[in-house]
Structure formats: C-alpha cells, structure tokens
C-alpha cells in the first residue's frame, strides 16, 4: 500500500498527529478517507510537510505557506522547480527581516536602557519622541510584549 496512515505520516515527518490534523484543516496537506473513516495520506504529503517545515524555519506564517502551496496545480507534490520559485519569493522576505534586524542593531547604540521611552533619542520604540504626546510611561513596550 502506498498510502500512509496519520500515525505513519506523523512518525515519518517528525510531527505530532494533532499537528497533521491542524495542517489538514488549514489546507496545507490533504487526505482521503477509508470506508472506516480513517485518514490516508499519499506519500507525496511528506514532501509538502518538508516544505512547511523549511518555510516555518525561516519564519513564514502558515498563511504564507498555504498561499505558496495553493499555487501548485492540482494539489501536487512540490518539485525542484516549485521549490526554486518558493525560495526566490521567500528570499525577499528573509532579506527584509535581515535589514530590519540590522537597523535594530544599529539603533541599540542610541538606547540608554532606562525604561523611560519618552526620551527624544530613543530610536527603538519611540522614534521622534512620538510617545511624548501620550504622556509619561513605557506603555509602548508593555503593549509590544503582549502582541503575538
């Protein structure tokens, strides 16, 4: 038999069964059902899961990964050419993140680290002293920590 049970796919892909169910609910992978209503996955789902894992490693969201996989005709297995196209698009995302982190690294020199973010020099959280109009305090940092 060429199809894999959900447990076999999970073991081969190195993810949990609930993760596979979630990925299926998000449209990242697909299965067929047996007469006994058990999920069966084509072996090609292993390659799709490898693409998902690689994309997550570079920080893409499941929405971004799903959009890339949805671009494949007929929900087929990603090929080397598909991966090259994905990598080309995702490289731009990674380059943008690298640029943001480099700018953040440069801004660290201007941070006095005192927690008072209304200082007009703070380029990290309060560029241009925009928080001064809202009053004293470090509300922006606490709000940034709560954001996903």
Automatic annotation (TrEMBL):
Annotated GO biological process: response to oxidative stress
InterPro entries referenced in this protein's UniProt entry, alphabetically: DNA-bd_dom_put_sf, MerR-type_HTH_dom, MerR_fam, Redox-sen_tscrpt-act_SoxR, Tscrpt_reg_MerR_DNA-bd
Residues in HTH merR-type domain copies: 1-71
Pfam family, one: MerR
Keyword annotations from UniProtKB, A to Z: 2Fe-2S, DNA-binding, Iron, Iron-sulfur, Metal-binding, Transcription, Transcription regulation
SMART domains for this protein: HTH_MERR
GO MF annotation terms: 2 iron, 2 sulfur cluster binding; DNA binding; DNA-binding transcription factor activity; metal ion binding
PROSITE patterns assigned: HTH_MERR_1 (PS00552), HTH_MERR_2 (PS50937)
Gene3D superfamilies with a match to the protein in the record: 1.10.1660.10
Protein name: MerR family transcriptional regulator, redox-sensitive transcriptional activator SoxR
Organism from which the protein derives: Blastococcus aurantiacus
Phylogenetic classification of the source organism: Bacteria, Bacillati, Actinomycetota, Actinomycetes, Geodermatophilales
